[in-house]
Predict the structure.
Amino acid sequence: MAKKKTPQDGGAKKVSNPNVMGLRAQVLEQPITETLEVNYMPYAMSVIVSRAIPEIDGFKPSHRKLLYTMYQMHLLGGARTKSANVVGATMKLNPHGDAAIYDTMVRLSRGYGALLHPLVDSKGNFGKVYSRDMAWAASRYTEVRLDPICQELFRDIDQDAVDFVPNYDGKLQEPTLLPTTFPNVLVAANQGIAVGMASNLCGFNLAEVCDAAIARMKDPSADLLSILKAPDFSTGGQLLYDGAALAEIYRTGRGSVKLRAKWRYVKAENLIEIYEIPYSTTVEAILDKVAELVKSGKVREISDMRDETGLDGLKLAIDLKRGTDPDKLMAKLFQLTPLQDTFSCNFNILIAGMPRVMGVGEILDEWIAWRMDGVRRRTYYVCKKKEEKLHLLKGLKRILLDIDKAIRIIRETEEEAEVVPNLIIGFGIDQVQAEYVADIRLRNINKEYILKRIEEVGTLEEEIADLKDLINSPKRIQKVMTGELENVKKKYAAPRRTEIVYEYQLHQEVEEEARQVPEYPVHVFISKEGYFKKITPQSLRMSGEQKYKEGDGPFLQWEGNNRDELLVFTDRQQCYKTRLSDFDDSKASVLGDYLPTKLGMEPEEKFLWACDPGDYSAHLLFFYANGKAARVELSAYQTQTRRRKLTGALSDKAPLVSAMVLQEDMEVAVCSTEGRCVVFHTASLTPKTTRSTQGVNVITLKPKYQLEWARPLAETTIVNTARYRARSLPIAGALLREEDRGETQMSLL
């Protein structure tokens, strides 16, 4: 029997063409670095730069191409046209297909409601931003035009304010940016997911943004939080104000804000109506979650829930069972459903082709610099046009000296091509001026017409001089921008949609686990190195001496409750939030829990200080080695989560020397390593909501000395208090006398 041939024996036909692969896949070996450079990085950068991340004008390329196409179609101030017409025209600039273009149009439309100031005035069904399942009509059934606010996007488009580049096939020109007269990047909410990065921009109230930009130009150190109060969302709702979180967002461009739905109780029908929901959720998500809770038995107070959204706007109706307290039910729903949600901010913007995560202040600075360049370019363009006109009029002025001569030259010239050269020779003008003179209509070659035109020369010269001065004067340019911003605010500003709730009740967690935490008194002990012990009064009475590691010793101790919270501060300027109930009851004879390990601190991160925040109504006093003291409101550390790590919990400019909780104002004594002491009243320190504030100087230090300790005056051995009391801060202080030193004083840290 003949042996069956295998592929190795030549049974398979070999492929002779090197460009054609055989049936078996070939594995090509390639260094990973080359794969990343050749294949991955070009694609990633293309998505980042050309598709997903917005630029300083507040638009992604898809937005810009659509709006510019509509502008070229004369849809600014004109009648509406079919959306399909706009989509088809936009495909000349956008090669990604009609579906993607129409989706972009929907998001920008008034009907969809995603923007505080819609850019597309729509007619027809465009869906709703608050509905996940509501489909919008096809482009052949809807009509669009540009909204009047788009006048502020295209005001300078024809005056060389921005650069133009060829489209994808090189047949048309399109702008690289739109010359917005206001910081649209902060007004229009925008989202984008690129390769390896993302962007999530929330909207702000237009009037507040304009005021913030004006204030930033006048004073770069202006407090933006007092002007730009908080984000504003098109779906309304309530924003639970957290000053510390907003300050972090304004500084870094990252963070989150809490949003809550608006509701009312209809007593006659015993139902709750929800008429505004958070921007980050949908009606369907809320209904699904409530249905799940009712089905699982976690919420028993609801008999029915339905969507009654109509032409009047959004409305969710919740029928209540008899005897239900609507306030308690809503508190529970806020905790368990998307009726209270979080919007995560990620202010990632392309600046000169490079993605940058920036705070609000940086964004305004970049926009101001970019807009100043746009105004300068526009002014230069207008100035050149006037200079060209002035140049022509000066040539016309030369003709005025002898009109008959000009007519004779033109009449006696046999060839048309020789008319301009003869005028140049005859009057000593250049070719541009000669072309202008030669093109004057015969009826206008008279002294009266020419004199009227020449009268403009003086006015033009003054205007040109003024424009040149404007180009070279940054202050005048900023004044022009201020006028534009005030005009935008006057014409298009609208009331804030999202209500800011500055004071709100922090409801206890409704989870069963939280309700089962036992409540009993405890004694808290923390050593210098960060060993934590929670001991009950009974165990403490039966215990002997406290046990510590060699070289360690007592540091902090207080009486509290098992349900109390605990704030732990570290040398990385971080604050770890936890509860005493998270620690097991201990005994005096053990070392206790090591806080860096228990709280999951970073490697080499060390414990500094801890406290019980109580109801967050008190203040924290931080004293630093450089002689500064900071008074921070405890409410700046308040959150609604059981455990959370807060960054920027204190200043990083100097090491922390001492800290204390300030329930009420009192006198405090501080002492330097030189032995100088200052006594001052805490009422002289202004409370701050910013956790990382540097504070103010309370004692003047010589170069080689630093702050050694700080403590309440009542806890010191100082007798001659008047000797050290400060009338104003800072002060060098007085040297401690022997009778005021007492025993050796221990530092709190």
Observations:
- Residues 360-400 form the longest helix (41 residues).
- Residues 122 and 144 are 5 Å apart (CA to CA).
- The chain has a mean pLDDT of 88.
